[in-house]
Amino acid sequence: MEGKGAEDIACRHLRAQGMRIVARNWRWRGGEVDIIARDGPTLVFVEVKGRSGEGFGTAVEAVTGEKRNRLWRTALAFLGGQPEMPVRFDVVAVEPAGVRHIRDAFREEDVRPGP
């Protein structure tokens, strides 16, 4: 399953986990994030990967370093610069066996150079 169908399933899953959907397919000139949700005080940027099988690797493998950097820059654009609240990056894989939610799939330090 791919595209909007996978995102619809991911939104239902996130809501069932108690999260509130803030935005879907939020875009700016530097990228897009599939879903932005609130999990308590944390703003969660979610990459959705639809998979019809394992022939193209796992969902987490599909979120490459370049994709992580783009998601971080998109998160900063959404927040208007520096994050003033806790942020998290999750991956939701919609697979034939069901939904797999990887919380904290990567962190800020995984995409930004250190001091």
Account of the protein in words:
- With 115 residues, the protein is α+β, with helices and mostly antiparallel strands.
- It has a single domain (3-111), classed as Trna Endonuclease, Chain: A, domain 1 (3-Layer(aba) Sandwich).
- It contains four helices and five strands; from the N terminus they run αβββααββα.
- The chain has helices at residues 3-16, 59-62, 65-79, 108-111; strands at residues 20-28, 31-39, 42-50, 87-95, 98-106.
- The protein has a five-stranded mixed sheet.
Relevant terms:
single chain, 115 residues, alpha+beta, Trna Endonuclease, Chain: A, domain 1, five-stranded mixed β-sheet, 5 strands, globular
User: What count of helical segments does DSSP give?
Assistant: 4
- Number of structural domains: 1
The CATH architecture: 3-Layer(aba) Sandwich
Q: What is the CATH first-level class name? A: Alpha Beta
